[in-house]
Amino acid sequence: MYALVDAVSFYASAEKVFDPAIRSKPVVVLTNNDGCVCAICPIARRLNIPKFGPYFKVKHLLEQNNVVIRSSNYELYADLSDKMMNIIARFCDTQHIYSIDESFLHFDGYTSLIKDWHEYGHTIRRTVWRETKLPVGVGFGPTPTLAKAANHAAKKLSGFNGVAVINSEQTRQAILQRMSCEDVWGIGRRLAKKLKIMNIQTAWDLAQQNPRAMRRAFSVVVERTVSELNGITCLNWDDVRQDKREIYSTRSFGERICEPTALKTALINHVTTVANKLRAQRSLTHQLYIFAASGAHENKYYKKSFVYKFPSPTNDTCVMANAVSEVFNKIYQPGIRFYKCGVGAVELISEQFQQNDLFNKSPDNPKLMQCLDTINKRYGKGMLSLASSKLNDRWHMNRDFLSPQYTTRWRDIPKIYCE
DNA sequence: TCTGGGGTCCTAGGACCC
DNA sequence: TCTGGGGTCCTAGGACCC
């Protein structure tokens, strides 16, 4: 049995945790640079605001309805996420954190110990609410995809009240028949549209298809999804938690950037992030993809990218930052108003399989990296960093509606006044 | 609902080779 | 000069997720 536990509109709920005054109000959260609406609390959902639609298009609607607007406060969300995940982990000894607010639990071996899955799900919900004031939904199912479907039912379909269990043929059919294809994990809008033409409307319709035929018509992903909907585990536990094959860090700027130092500083910060993530999953990269671009809505769209190939695979921040410096002049062009840039590690291999070059000694310094990671882990992210990542700070993003970092910054700690 | 964020995976198709 | 075959590698773009 698998479970999927996630928060109800996590970012919006997180904003309400330390600000009880807005708990009964409609709240939305915007993406980086306040570009799009990315979280809509259940109260605000009544206004039919399109999720991931551009903010400027709904600005008027939000103002008219006195909707509370917040910029993404990742420092706060990451910390609340940690707290929430730790609580959920108490309920199962194998947890896979899938995203900032979702985790899969795999109840392998103690399926017979839990008599009442509904009750167990409600206990998880109550505990998380009591300790964090975050509302969560819980779905149980025999495969990860069915657990996802149950989670959808728990939160979106009437009569479930936050917990849904697929543990029989009847419950599977009942839930899948009430879900459209588009609500199935792995089926997006495009695929749903094509499926509709084939008269495949509900999740149940999709489950009735021949997996092989679906592979031929679409892809292996759809084939797997169909099997999973029928209780055949394809995304087995090892797959769900597999190492990433690509790691990217990209951002758009709060204002257009023209100076080379600002662009370079941004790229160095991205490469630092990518190197950290590589070391965290014990991978090395053969290649680094580096790009910068002007705004997509500008008259003349400019995008320049470069793939840097390392003589031997690396996850060393210094080595990777040098690569950025080396190709920087091929990407930067004076006069361009840069809007976005980023770095990606592609073609990853596990540290275990590292092959040293007989003739070229690797420039990596694993001990230095280990020291850097230890210090940053102990004293906070970014405590120790490359000087070149601090040269120019004009590349930061806009966050005009930012709430305080209640839990991660001393001066933002909530104050309680007594009379 | 053509979408002003960010991240990851998959695949079609081009380049090149024998 | 065009076309037939078959394989690998690489890249851009499609599609999905939150």
Put the structure in a nutshell:
It comes from Pseudoalteromonas distincta. With 419 residues, this protein is α+β, with helices and mostly antiparallel strands. 38% of the residues lie in helices and 21% in strands.
Mean pLDDT: 91
Note the beta-strand portion. Answer: 15-25%
**In terms of per-residue confidence, which ranges show pLDDT below 50 for 5 or more consecutive residues?**
none
Query: How is the biggest beta sheet arranged?
Result: 5 strands, mixed
- How far apart are the termini? 52 Å
Report the total helices.
Answer: 15
Which geometry do the CA atoms define?
Answer: globular
What is the H-and-E element order? EHEEHHEHEEHEHEHHHHHHEHEEHEH
Give the strand tally: 12
Strand order of the largest sheet: 5-6-1-7-8
What is Rg? 24 Å
Helix content: 25-40%
**Class per helix and strand makeup:** alpha+beta
